[in-house]
């Protein structure tokens, strides 16, 4: 078994789509980033790469590469899954913390889980997502940022 840890944070700016776990959430702001800025998919990608000792998202998909400008982050996860699978690993489970002050992410968690299951070929019993607020503290609490933490177990 192998454990992997992923973390990602993006600043929130007006005029960007708020996409989390592949779900477009109604908001007047979204994550600034080279790709679509999906913090959940980015943290998940880093956790998978980390568990398999395959480096990190920034090395595989550099933000200087025009191919990834505005990219759907699902592309990254598909490629990472192929790399991890090629090493002989299977996903056992993942646990996720999502950090956003507003809007509430909880109503969208089931859709995010469904997207992850479809992308990675896992069951919803293997995916746990928790939506957390920043309680007014730090960048998340001041509505300046969205962040995600992921732990993944491979077997
Ligand atoms: Mg990112």
Per-chain topology:
Elements: E1 2-14, E2 18-20, E3 23-25, E4 29-31, H1 39-51, H2 57-60, H3 74-86, E5 91-99, H4 109-120, E6 127-132, H5 138-141, E7 145-154
Parallel strand pairs: 5-6
Antiparallel strand pairs: 1-4, 1-7, 2-3, 5-7
Helix pairs in contact: 1-3
This protein binds magnesium ion.
How would you describe this protein?
The protein is of the alpha+beta class and 155 residues long. The chain has a single domain (2-154), classed as 2-Layer Sandwich (60s Ribosomal Protein L30, Chain: A). The chain contains five helices and seven strands. The protein has helices spanning 39-51, 57-60, 74-86, 109-120, 138-141, and strands at residues 2-14, 18-20, 23-25, 29-31, 91-99, 127-132, 145-154. It has a five-stranded mixed beta sheet with strand order 4-1-7-5-6. The chain has a two-stranded antiparallel sheet with strand order 2-3. Helix 1 (39-51) packs parallel to helix 3. The longest helix is centred in the first third of the chain and has 13 residues, at 39-51. The radius of gyration is 15 Å and the shape is globular. The termini are close together. The mean pLDDT is 97. It binds magnesium ion. The site of magnesium ion has 5 residues, from strand 1 and helix 1. Magnesium ion is lined by residues 8, 10, 33, 39, 42.
């Amino acid at each position: 078994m192998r454990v992997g840890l992923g973390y990602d944070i993006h600043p929130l700016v007006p005029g960007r789509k708020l996409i989390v776990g592949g779900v477009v959430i109604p908001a007047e702001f979204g994550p600034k980033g080279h790709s679509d800025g999906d913090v959940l998919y980015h943290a998940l990608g880093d956790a998978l790469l980390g568990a398999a000792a395959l480096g990190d998202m920034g090395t595989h998909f550099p933000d200087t590469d025009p191919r990834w400008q505005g990219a759907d982050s699902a592309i990254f996860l598909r490629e990472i899954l192929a790399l991890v699978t090629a090493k002989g690993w299977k996903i056992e489970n993942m646990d996720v913390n999502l950090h956003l002050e507003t809007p509430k992410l909880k109503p969208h968690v089931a859709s995010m889980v469904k997207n992850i299951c479809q992308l990675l070929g896992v069951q919803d019993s293997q995916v746990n997502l928790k939506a957390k607020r920043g309680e007014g503290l730090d960048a998340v609490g001041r509505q300046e940022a969205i962040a995600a933490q992921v732990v993944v177990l491979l077997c």
